[in-house]
Write a structure and sequence with these properties.
By secondary structure, this protein is α/β, with parallel strands linked by helices. The chain is built from 21 helices and 17 strands.
Length: about 550
C-alpha cells in the first residue's frame, strides 16, 4: 500500500493511505450512489473496505455518509444509524482493526462493524453497494500459501497479493455497485497481471485509472494507481478515462478531480490481456505507428541476458592490487580474472573503467584446476561462500543451491563469458546509457547484455527517441527512471534504414566510439530520427515529451 512520506512501513505488506487520498477515493466511489436518494435509501447502502488497516477509508466512508444523510434532511438519529448500519470491513491484523474500531467509535459507529479476518478466504454476506480500500502489497514469495487463491480468475503463480483484491471487489459488489481501489501500478503492464487484465476486460467495469506512479505524495518505493468503476454496468462506456498524474503533497485535496482534468480516453476494446499503457492520444498514435512500421528488437537481435550473480562480491570481486599479487604468485591466475563492470560504470558508447576485477569461477570447475593463489584467496572467505542449508536461514553463507563453495552462485551464461562484441545497458535507467563492452568485460547483475556489436542498435539505444519510448512503455523506477525488463525491450521497434543511411550512422558511431563529442552525439540522434522516418511534427512531439 502507498505510504505517506516519512512514515514507517508496518508489517504484513501494509502501508497506510494519506487521508486526502482516501477521501478522494471514497467520493469517487460513493458520490454516484447518493445522488437523488432519500434518507431511507441512504441508510440501506452497504459499503465495504476489505483491508481496513488502521481505518483511513472507513473513517472517510463514515464522514461521507454522515454528510449525505444530513444533506438529505436526516435527523441526528438517522446520521447515527448510517454509521451503525452501512459500514463493514475486515483485516488480518488484529492490532490494526482495534485502531480502526477506536477511530469509528469516536465518530459514533459501533465496534462490531469491523472484524479480524482474511478477506480473500472468508464467506461474505449479501453484496455491497460499494467496495473501497487499499489492499496489502505482499510479493508472491512472501505468501504462506496460495491454495485459496487458485480459485480466482486472476490467479498467477507469481502475482502480488493485491491482484486478487481487484477481482474480490467484483465478487463483493452487487450488479451496479461501485469500487475504487489503490494498488501498485504494476498490474497495468506486468506479465503476472495478464489474467487480471483479461478479467477486467471481460467485466467491462473499469471507468477510470489515475496512475500516481511518480507522485511525491507517497514513499519513494511506491508506484500507486487508483482504479474505479461499476460492477456489471448496464451500458459500459466504449472508453476508459486514464491519466498519469503527479500530486502536490502540500495540496492533495480533490486530487482525482484535478488529475482527471488531464485524462485521455482509451478505447476499452484495445485494453485486453496485454499491457494497458496510459498515453496521450498523440503519443499512443506515434508508438503504434512505430510498432506497425518496424520489426521488434526481439526479432533482430539475440535474447538479452543478465550479468553475473556472485553471491559474495567481497570474495569474487577484487581490486587491481589483489589481481597483480595473484598473477605475480602464479601467472596462470590471469586467465581466471576478468574486468568486472557494474551498472554504475555504464556510459554512452563506452563503459567507464573501474579498479575492479572478477574471479570467473563457473559452475563445474574443479577446485584443483584453479591456480593456488586463487584457491587460497577464496578459501579465506569459505565461511561466507558455503551455500546455506535452507532459504532465509541465519548466519553466513550464500543462498541454498547445488553449487560448490568456491564457484560463483549462479551459472555464467554464454553471453556473459563471451569475448565477442556485446552491447551493455543498465537494469535501471535514468537516461540512455548503452555501451560497447570491452572484449574481456564481465558485467554484474545490474547490467543487461545484447549479444551483438551492431552500431545501428547502439545508436538507437543511446538516442532521445529511445528515451521517449522507454518512458512510455517500460515500467517505472525511482526518480523518473525506468526498468528495461526483458519483455519490454524485446518489443522495441528497430528502424531498418536504407543502406546509405545505415552506413552513415555506422561511421558516426565508430567515430564516436573512438573520440566522443557532443556535436557528433547530436548528429547521431538526428540520423536515428531520419532512420525512423519521423517528420517535423513527430520531432516536435519528442522534444515536448522529454
Amino acid at each position: 500500500m502507498p505510504v505517506p512520506r516519512d512514515a514507517q512501513r508496518p508489517p504484513l505488506g501494509v502501508v497506510y493511505t494519506p487521508p486526502a487520498v482516501a477521501r478522494a477515493m471514497v467520493r469517487v466511489a460513493l458520490a454516484p450512489l447518493v445522488v437523488g436518494r432519500g434518507v431511507d435509501e441512504l441508510l440501506a447502502l452497504r459499503v465495504c473496505d476489505p483491508a481496513i488497516g488502521e481505518g483511513a477509508f472507513v473513517v472517510e466512508i463514515a464522514r461521507f455518509l454522515d454528510d449525505a444523510v444530513a444533506r438529505a434532511g436526516g435527523s441526528a438519529a438517522a446520521r447515527r444509524a448510517a454509521l451503525e448500519r452501512c459500514i463493514a470491513g475486515v483485516d488480518v491484523d488484529a492490532r490494526a482493526v482495534e485502531v480502526a474500531r477506536a477511530a469509528l467509535e469516536r465518530l459514533g459507529a459501533r465496534r462490531d462493524a469491523l472484524e479480524v479476518g482474511d478477506a480473500l478466504a472468508r464467506t461474505w454476506p449479501a453484496p455491497f453497494d460499494a467496495v473501497v480500500g487499499n489492499p496489502p502489497y505482499v510479493r508472491q514469495e512472501w505468501l504462506a500459501g496460495k491454495a485459496p487463491l487458485r480459485g480466482f480468475a486472476s490467479y498467477d503463480g507469481v502475482a502480488d497479493l493485491y491482484v486478487y483484491f481487484l477481482e474480490l471487489a467484483h465478487r463483493l459488489a452487487r450488479p451496479g455497485g461501485r469500487y475504487c481501489l489503490i494498488t501498485p501500478n504494476k498490474w497495468l503492464t506486468v506479465a503476472y497481471a495478464a489474467p487480471l487484465r483479461a478479467f477486467l476486460a471481460g467485466a467491462r467495469s473499469v471507468e477510470g485509472i489515475v496512475d500516481l506512479g511518480r507522485s511525491p505524495l507517497f514513499a519513494e518505493d511506491a508506484f500507486p494507481c487508483i482504479t474505479w468503476g461499476t460492477v456489471a454496468p448496464a451500458a459500459p462506456a466504449a472508453e476508459i478515462a486514464a491519466v498519469r498524474a503527479a500530486v502536490d503533497p502540500e495540496e492533495p485535496g480533490d486530487l482525482l478531480e484535478r488529475a482527471l482534468a488531464g485524462a485521455s480516453p482509451h478505447p476499452r476494446a484495445s485494453w485486453q490481456r496485454g499491457p494497458w499503457h496510459i498515453d496521450d492520444p498523440a503519443d499512443r498514435a506515434l508508438v503504434e505507428r512505430l510498432h506497425a512500421r518496424w520489426p521488434r528488437l526481439g526479432e533482430l537481435a539475440g535474447r538479452p541476458s543478465r550479468g553475473i550473480v556472485t553471491g559474495c562480491n567481497r570474495a569474487f570481486a577484487i581490486d587491481g592490487a589483489t589481481r597483480a599479487r595473484l598473477v605475480a604468485e602464479d601467472p596462470a591466475a590471469a586467465a581466471w580474472i576478468r574486468p568486472f563492470v557494474k551498472g554504475r560504470d555504464l556510459r554512452r558508447w563506452r563503459p567507464a573503467r573501474a579498479d575492479r576485477h572478477l574471479l570467473l569461477v563457473d559452475r563445474g570447475t574443479e577446485l584443483a584446476a584453479l591456480p593456488a593463489p586463487i584457491r587460497a584467496h577464496l578459501a579465506a572467505h569459505r565461511r561466507d561462500l558455503e551455500p546455506r542449508a535452507a532459504p532465509g536461514g541465519d548466519g553466513p553463507g550464500r543462498k541454498p543451491g547445488t553449487y560448490r563453495w568456491y564457484e560463483l552462485q549462479d551459472p555464467v551464461g554464454p553471453t556473459t563469458a563471451a569475448r565477442t562484441p556485446r552491447l551493455l545497458y543498465q537494469d535501471i535507467q535514468t537516461e540512455p546509457a548503452c555501451c560497447l563492452a570491452g572484449e574481456d568485460d564481465v558485467p554484474d547483475t545490474t547490467v543487461w547484455m545484447l549479444p551483438t556489436g551492431d552500431r545501428l542498435l547502439l545508436a538507437i539505444l543511446n538516442s532521445p527517441l529511445y528515451r521517449w519510448y522507454a518512458q512510455r512503455r517500460f515500467p517505472p523506477a525511482l526518480n523518473g527512471a525506468v526498468r528495461p525488463k526483458l519483455a519490454y525491450v524485446r518489443e522495441l521497434p528497430i528502424a531498418q534504414p536504407p543502406p546509405a543511411l545505415r552506413a552513415h550512422l555506422e561511421r558516426l558511431v565508430d567515430d564516436q566510439l573512438a573520440d566522443p563529442t557532443a556535436e557528433r552525439d547530436r548528429a547521431i540522434a538526428a540520423a536515428v530520427l531520419d532512420a525512423y522516418e519521423l517528420d517535423a511534427a513527430d520531432r516536435r512531439r519528442l522534444d515536448a515529451g522529454r
